[in-house]
Amino acid sequence: MTVTGERIPTRTFRITRTDLVRYAAASGDHNPIHWSDSRAAAVGLPGVIAHGMLSMGLVATAVTDWAGEGAAVSEYSTRFSRPVLVPDTAEGVELTVEGTVGEIRADGSVRVDLTVRCGASKVLARTRAVLAPAASATHS
């Protein structure tokens, strides 16, 4: 049974430049700030950055993996607070997702409050996902 204050397992995702190229192909977002150091620098970025929707998708994966098969995110909100810089190395960068059950609502839905970091930097702020009622009973 899920309880308020319960922590979900910490998940760490590795993002490489290869992942950015694959995500660009899948999403149709071919903006060169996601693959070219010179183009990223030209717009004032310190380097190539991950797609924001890729970061959000990985966070949703952490939540639904915790909730279990059939889990459905019915609400999701966040703010981008820092870019996820992806170096041109085989190791790439790690995105770490931590979460706590913040609320169990009267309808049975579960709000999970999330912290998302790349290294020591918080890259997403005020991140929350709400799982539909049916999903709240299936987590492991």
Q: Strand order across the biggest sheet? A: 1-3-4-5-2
* SS field, number of helical segments: 4
CATH topology category name of the domain at 7-14 and 50-136: Thiol Ester Dehydrase, Chain A
The CATH class designation of the domain at 7-14 and 50-136 is Alpha Beta
CATH architecture of the domain at 7-14 and 50-136: Roll
Structural class: alpha+beta
- Helicity range: 25-40%
**Can you write the helix and strand succession as a string?**
EHHHEEEEH
Query: Could you give a short account of the major beta sheet?
Result: 5 strands, antiparallel
Full CATH superfamily name of the domain at 7-14 and 50-136 = Hotdog Thioesterase
How confident is the prediction overall: mean pLDDT? Answer: 94
Multimerization state:
single chain
Outline type? elongated
Question: If you had to describe this structure to a student in words, what would you say it looks like?
Answer:
- By secondary structure, the chain is an alpha+beta fold.
- 26% of the residues lie in helices and 35% in strands.
- A five-stranded antiparallel β-sheet has the order 1-3-4-5-2.
- Strand 4 (110-118) and strand 5 form a beta hairpin.
- It is elongated and about 50 Å long.
- The mean pLDDT is 94.
- Belongs to the enoyl-CoA hydratase/isomerase family.
- This is MaoC family dehydratase.
- Residues 11-112 form the MaoC-like domain.
Descriptive labels:
single chain; 140 residues; alpha+beta; Thiol Ester Dehydrase, Chain A; 5-stranded antiparallel sheet; 5 strands; 35% strand
SSE map:
Elements: E1 7-15, H1 17-27, H2 37-42, H3 52-67, E2 73-80, E3 93-104, E4 110-118, E5 121-131, H4 133-136
Antiparallel strand pairs: 1-3, 2-5, 3-4, 4-5
